[in-house]
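Worked example 4.2. Below are the chains of a multi-component assembly; read each line carefully before continuing.
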Amino acid sequence: DQQVKQNSPSLSVQEGRISILNCDYTNSMFDYFLWYKKYPAEGPTFLISISSIKDKNEDGRFTVFLNKSAKHLSLHIVPSQPGDSAVYFCAAHSLEDKIIFGKGTRLHILP
Amino acid sequence: NAGVTQTPKFRVLKTGQSMTLLCAQDMNHEYMYWYRQDPGMGLRLIHYSVGEGTTAKGEVPDGYNVSRLKKQNFLLGLESAAPSQTSVYFCASSLPTGRREDNEQFFGPGTRLTVL
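Applying the procedure described above to all two chains together yields the following structure tokens:
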């Protein structure tokens, strides 16, 4: 049973507009969440994270929102740029210090 | 500072053959991980290690063995490769410090393995 779910396999957004990537989780014990970005033929790289005691974390064009009651988080990218085209993985820290990844969402930024 | 490196980058095996994937990190990280990535499946943890000489099973450990004889190296072995093990394998490492904010995992570039 998937504990971290990214229900949209892909998303297309016009350059300059806002990209919103969504993620749901099932385990209320998760206390830290991360987003990783992956380009083809490369390993994932850390993008942004959020602790469960916060509801928002911002880093430049990237903002992650956490709604604990809904067990939902989202990544906002604004404005979207061509270099943002990649696969984005939502992930959660388990109590055993392991990271559990979602299946990923492929973001296409359209010119 | 090379970060996390993986050897080889590509490999084609026949069913039943064995091979070892090597992961090396030069960041003095305690924790190391092996993941596999399959289409539509995301990243799944195979095995991990919280320190030299220790290993533990992840989500999909069957068919794989690992060893962590040196802190900087984490080896993933396939004793008898099967077509179901065709995948892209990623190694990662992390410090960690006890603060979640510091537990970022750094990934290698991946090894693309095909088992015929």
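Take a moment to check your reading of the output against the notes. The radius of gyration of chain A is 13 Å. DSSP finds no helices and eleven strands in chain A.
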